[in-house]
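Action item from last meeting closed. Structure (366 res):
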């Protein structure tokens, strides 16, 4: 008998829930119409006076068992949800959004592709120091079957007294070595004024973490016919990262690769904190390829391999890491760069992992 009573009460609750749902949807339709009228009249979407009037009216009629604070909280959430209905949902119209384009964007770099399910590797020195240095790394890369070299010619550094890179001369060295060994070149450009000059030397323009919100630079690279590798800012949220990519695409360039390179947190054990969850989030939210820079995210040579494995396992389109013939004498970031033997071991381990993951994703050499 008691069971039947409980069932009846639960059925009653279900009926009430459905009635509440019906009324909430009716309210939502009215809220949308109010939003349209506000827009026509140029009124602010949020009207605190009107919200207070509505809340006071509700409280005048509140006589139920709920605490006053509970009722206020519930209706404030309803008000908030109604305001969101009145607001244009920019995420639905962002050019980089998965909602705007369901298919993955495939970025083609001299016949090699990002975003097609194959996993690639991008290697090279932190900074270009000399022709011989870059050539040594290129030889090692070629032996591993890799064809994409990264190298810094313009180096935005924390201290103004640190090595700032060789500038255009560094780009010339990269291009010379690239031509000699059949390598595609990626290098960071830090100002809008340098973009045009860089077009003769690089195959991919990198926008570094410190320039992720340099909006004039983003707009400038958005107007060129070159793939762009965009790194996440040191303290940027994923939403800010996505909007930075939108700046580029809004200018017409849809060949964008997103790079998770770690974010700044309170942790001191690593140079940055690798936000590995950003990879699937970015792949769900956007249609762009996503790669992981394990060097800058950790700043530690001993963590490059395990973090690279994690990035591969979670579905990153490529792994980026730094290699130097003699890291001990490197002009920048010596603690985070691999030497040639370490690089060879690194690649052997990742290729082995790639074979194990082959049933889930196709591994390619780049």
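Sequence:
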């Amino acid at each position: 008998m008691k069971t039947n009573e409980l069932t009846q009460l639960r059925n009653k609750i279900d009926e009430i829930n459905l009635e509440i749902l019906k009324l909430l949807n009716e309210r939502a339709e009215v809220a949308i119409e109010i939003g349209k009228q506000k827009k026509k009249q140029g009124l602010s979407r949020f009207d605190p006076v009107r919200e207070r009037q509505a809340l006071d009216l509700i409280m005048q009629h509140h006589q139920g068992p709920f605490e006053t604070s509970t009722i206020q909280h519930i209706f404030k959430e309803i008000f908030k949800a109604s305001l969101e209905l009145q607001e244009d949902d920019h995420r639905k119209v962002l050019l980089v959004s998965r909602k705007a384009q369901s298919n993955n964007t495939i970025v083609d770099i001299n016949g090699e592709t990002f975003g097609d399910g194959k996993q690639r590797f991008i290697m090279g020195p932190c900074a270009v120091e000399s022709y011989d240095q870059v050539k040594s790394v290129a030889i090692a890369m070629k032996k591993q079957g890799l064809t994409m070299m990264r190298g810094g010619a313009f180096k935005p550094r924390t201290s103004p007294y640190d090595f700032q890179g060789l500038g255009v001369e560094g780009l010339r060295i990269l291009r010379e070595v690239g031509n000699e060994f059949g390598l595609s070149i990626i290098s960071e450009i830090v100002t809008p004024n340098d973009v045009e000059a860089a077009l003769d030397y690089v195959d991919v323009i990198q926008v570094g973490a410190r320039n992720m919100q340099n909006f004039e630079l983003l707009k400038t690279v958005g107007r060129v016919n070159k793939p762009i590798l965009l790194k996440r800012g040191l303290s940027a949220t994923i939403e800010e990262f996505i909007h930075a990519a939108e700046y580029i695409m809004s200018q017409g360039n849809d060949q964008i690769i997103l790079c998770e390179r770690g974010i700044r947190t309170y942790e001191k054990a690593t140079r940055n904190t690798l936000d590995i969850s950003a990879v699937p989030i970015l792949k769900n939210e956007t249609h762009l390829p996503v790669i992981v820079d394990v060097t800058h995210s950790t700043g530690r040579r001993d963590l490059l391999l395990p973090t690279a494995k994690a990035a591969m396992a979670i579905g990153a389109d490529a792994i980026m890491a730094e290699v130097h013939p003699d890291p001990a004498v490197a002009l920048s970031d010596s603690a985070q760069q691999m030497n040639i033997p370490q690089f060879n071991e690194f690649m052997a381990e990742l290729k082995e992992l790639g074979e194990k993951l082959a049933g889930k994703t196709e591994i390619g050499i780049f």
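Note appended to the action item: DSSP finds 13 helices and eleven strands in the chain.
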